């Protein structure tokens, strides 16, 4: 490591061709040697720093990539979230409409049909935190579980409305005709039709009748019902019963949830 003065001098003379005068100047030589050592160690540390920088950049890129991937995954999950509700929006089913006049009749079978169709009224109970994370608007807190909020899947409102109209039209002993409610219901069905216009192109044989047996592209209603059943507010019928008992049997004017 430590070279003698003469070795040092010779090295200097050979390599740098300096004259004897400068060789006599010992402190200067030492300084020069130190400068050389410093320079090479500085070179080394520049390379070292560069390598570290590259490594750090690669790490940062990798981490950024992972974060981006995670966010993309999360966005995808949000899109198909609410336990697959958004997937139910796809029109993945083909249906030929049947002549279902008997569903509208004033009969026990028709009543049973509508009871099954309306089920729990599409009233569901969702974890409030979860609903908020899905971007849903806040809704009333569940009276039976403070961590849950209550929503209704809207098609059940429209179905309820249709059934109310049916009951008013068909019943031999009709309930007191609530005209305001019926008009609301008719208009609600109108709004639903304009919201989801069926674009099926139907054919005609006689230029008068256009409602032949075309195949319609539909959402899978059975899958919707399954989803609703999974999330239904189980205590809802019980809650309704208790409420109407408290009201001494007075029916609410707008009862959109049940048949
Ligand atoms: C339509 O899509 C829903 C949601 O992915 C699915 O549950 C259902 O089985 C599908 N129906 C058909 C007929 O493919
Ligand atoms: C539908 O079926 C009923 C009997 O259930 C029948 O009276 C009616 O004429 C049918 N309507 C059409 C358009 O086929
Ligand atoms: C809604 O209607 C159903 C069936 O007609 C009834 O059992 C229920 O008590 C009603 N709910 C309210 C809040 O009036």
From TrEMBL:
**Species name:** Trichoderma ghanense
| UniProt-recorded name of the protein | Tat pathway signal sequence
Which InterPro entries does the entry link to?
Answer: UstYa-like
Chain residue ranges for the region called Disordered:
1-22
Keyword set includes Cell cycle: no
Q: Which family does it belong to?
A: Belongs to the ustYa family.
Question: What Pfam families does the record tag this protein with?
Answer: UstYa
Q: Which domain of life is it from?
A: Eukaryota
- Keyword terms: Membrane, Transmembrane, Transmembrane helix
Q: Write out the transmembrane intervals.
A: 46-69
Compositional bias segments (type: Basic and acidic residues): 1-16
């Amino acid at each position: 490591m430590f070279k003698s003065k003469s070795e040092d001098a010779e090295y200097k003379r050979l390599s740098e061709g300096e004259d004897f005068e400068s060789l006599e100047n010992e402190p200067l030589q030492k300084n020069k040697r130190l400068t050389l050592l410093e320079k090479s160690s500085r070179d080394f540390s520049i390379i070292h720093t560069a390598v570290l920088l590259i490594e750090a950049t690669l790490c940062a890129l990798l981490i950024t990539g992972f974060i981006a991937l995670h966010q993309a995954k999360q966005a995808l999950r949000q899109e198909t979230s609410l336990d697959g509700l958004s997937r139910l929006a796809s029109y993945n089913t083909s249906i030929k409409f049947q002549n279902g006049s008997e569903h509208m009749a004033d009969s026990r079978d028709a009543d049973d049909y509508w009871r099954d169709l309306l089920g729990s009224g599409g009233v569901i109970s969702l974890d409030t935190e979860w609903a908020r994370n899905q971007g849903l608007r806040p809704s009333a807190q569940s009276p039976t579980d403070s961590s849950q909020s209550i929503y209704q899947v809207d098609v059940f409102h429209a179905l309820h409305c249709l059934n109310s109209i049916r009951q008013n039209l068909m019943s031999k002993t009709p309930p007191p005709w609530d005209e305001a409610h019926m008009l609301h219901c008719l208009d609600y069905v109108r709004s639903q039709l304009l919201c989801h216009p069926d674009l099926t192109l139907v054919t005609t044989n006689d230029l008068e009748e256009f409602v032949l047996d075309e195949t319609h592209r539909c959402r899978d209603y059975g899958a919707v019902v399954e989803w609703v059943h999974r999330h239904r507010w189980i205590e809802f019928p019980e809650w309704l019963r208790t409420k109407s008992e408290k009201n001494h049997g007075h029916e609410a004017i707008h009862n959109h949830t049940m048949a």
